[in-house]
Each structure stands twice: as C-alpha cells, then as structure tokens.
Amino acid sequence: MRVTDIIKRKGGEVVTLPPTATIKELVDLLTGHRIGAVIVEDELGLAGIVSEKDVVRFVSEAGNPASLISTIMERTVTTCRPEDDIRDLAAVMTIQRVRHLPVLDDGKLIAIISIGDVVKARLDDLEAERDHLESYVHGRLPEESST
Questions:
Q1: What is the average pLDDT value for the chain, to the nearest integer?
Q2: Cα–Cα distance between 29 and 21 in angstroms, integer?
Q3: What's the Rg (C-alpha) of the chain?
Q4: Phi, psi (5° rounding) for residue 62?
Q5: Residue 85: CB partners within 8 Å, gap ≥ 6?
Q6: Crossing angle of helices 23-33/52-60, nearest 10°?
Q7: pLDDT digit string (tens) for 93-103?
Q8: Which of 67, 44, 50 is nearest to 16 (CA)?
Q9: In what order do the strands lie in the sheet with 45-51?
Q10: CB–CB of 109/102 below 8 Å?
C-alpha cells in the first residue's frame, strides 16, 4: 500500500498556521479539529511542524500562551511522497520518533498522514491478506469469501 491509498481513504485536508500564530491559537486549532499536529507554512511553503508534544514541553516550562508557534515548531521536517510505501514510512516514523508526516508532491503540500493512518492501513493490508489465504486454503475464489 502506498501513501496515495491512505490519502484516498482519509482525504487530503491539511490544517496549517503561519509562524506568527500564537500557542493559544495552535491549541485551539488542535482541539477544535481533534488533531495531533499542525503544519506551519510561510510565504515560501512548508516552514515547520508543531505537535501536541511540543505544546506539552512548552507548557511544562511555564511558557506564555501568547508566544509565537515559531518558537516551538520543529523546523527540520521529515516528509514523504504520494508514491512512498507505508511499510517504509512505518520504519521512518519509528526510527525518527515522529507521528506525523507532511506529504509533498513536487514540493507542494497535499496531505498529512499520522502513525495512526499508517497502522490502520497496515492492519487493513494484513486483514485482506488473511482473507485471501483463508479463501485459498478452503478452496474458495476470492469473490466467494465476501458473501
């Protein structure tokens, strides 16, 4: 399965903020959309990413909610492409300890995928494989197994 398959299922909506947004605006957006990360875009495009864990660290250090998100955003952003295989992404996300990957197509932000999206897609793949193997073992054609 590829990133494009995940995007087809969940859609390509991406929530973004400018680097001049405040931590308070960020928290309101995360809460309102029930998401774990926001892409930070400036006039040149992808400028960074900021996640719940960045906010938690900031708050634990008694940060001011009026501070700009540019003070806490991660500027080095791991990205992926629509044609990337999700098994590879699972490894990248695990090794780099990131839970969200912006999807870029020719440098343009088209979506964001989370570790939850990757895990769900992988489980769907495994379930389909299991169903196919069960059909094979029981001598049924794949169409017969869905009835």
A1: 89
A2: 11
A3: 19
A4: 60, 40
A5: 1, 2
A6: 140
A7: 999 999 999 99
A8: 50
A9: 16-17, 37-42, 45-51
A10: yes
